[in-house]
Amino acid sequence: MAQETTDEQSTAQHAASSLTQEERERIASMSYEQARDQLIQAVQALEAGGLDLDQSMRQWELGEALAKRAQSLLDQVRAKLDAAQAQQAQTAQTAGTQSNLE
Question: Region (Disordered) spans which residues (predicted)?
Fold first, then answer.
């Protein structure tokens, strides 16, 4: 049931979003640096003012999608680092032991 609620929320968010499927796909394929740089541009556009309500909402939605992409990439890197550190710790524990020589 919790999964249905999450799926419904995701569907509702996409329906309410002004981002097109193509824009969402483009964001999903961005590198961290690309997402970060475009997020900075979106924030600057909002901070500069002069946008009407629809333009402001679009920039906000774009910023949210870009921030989510950047965070996802950071989370992936963190997971890789954690795995590498765990592997190093395991190797250090077995260094010079018979189990390491097999």
Answer: 1-30, 82-102
